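Ops channel
N.P.: pipeline sanity check, posting one input/output pair.
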C-alpha cells in the first residue's frame, strides 16, 4: 500500500509533531524521508523561507484527498488552494497557525448515506 496523503508522525530526533510527505503528487515520485512542519505559512514567512533557502511544500486537495507537492520556481505557475508548509528542521520554531488536515466533525453525517 502506498500512502499518498501526508501522515502525522513524530520526529525521531526532537519528538515534535511533523507531517511525513510520502509522495510528491506533482512530480509523481515517492519520497524517502521528507518531514514537514504542520504550520500554515503567511506571505512574509514564505518570503523568509525563499530567502533562507528552506524548502516549502504545497499541501492541497486532489479529488478530496490531501496530497503534497514540493514547490519550486517552476511549479506552481498559478496559485493553488491550500496551505504552504516548510520542511522540518529540529531547531526551527514557527509562529504560524497549526495546520489541521483532519476532517471537520460537523461535516460527518449522522446517518449513512447508502
Amino acid at each position: 500500500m502506498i500512502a499518498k496523503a501526508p501522515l502525522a508522525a513524530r520526529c525521531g530526533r526532537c519528538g515534535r509533531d511533523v507531517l511525513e510527505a510520502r509522495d510528491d503528487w506533482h512530480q509523481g515520485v515517492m519520497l524517502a524521508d521528507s518531514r514537514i512542519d504542520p504550520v500554515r505559512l503567511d506571505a512574509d514567512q514564505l518570503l523568509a523561507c525563499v530567502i533562507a533557502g528552506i524548502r516549502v511544500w504545497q499541501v492541497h486537495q486532489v479529488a478530496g484527498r490531501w496530497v503534497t507537492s514540493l514547490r519550486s520556481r517552476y511549479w506552481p505557475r498559478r496559485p493553488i488552494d491550500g496551505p504552504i508548509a516548510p520542511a522540518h528542521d529540529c531547531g526551527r520554531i514557527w509562529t504560524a497557525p497549526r495546520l489541521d488536515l483532519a476532517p471537520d466533525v460537523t461535516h460527518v453525517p449522522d446517518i449513512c448515506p447508502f
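N.P.: looks fine end to end. The CA atoms of residues 58 and 76 lie 9 Å apart.
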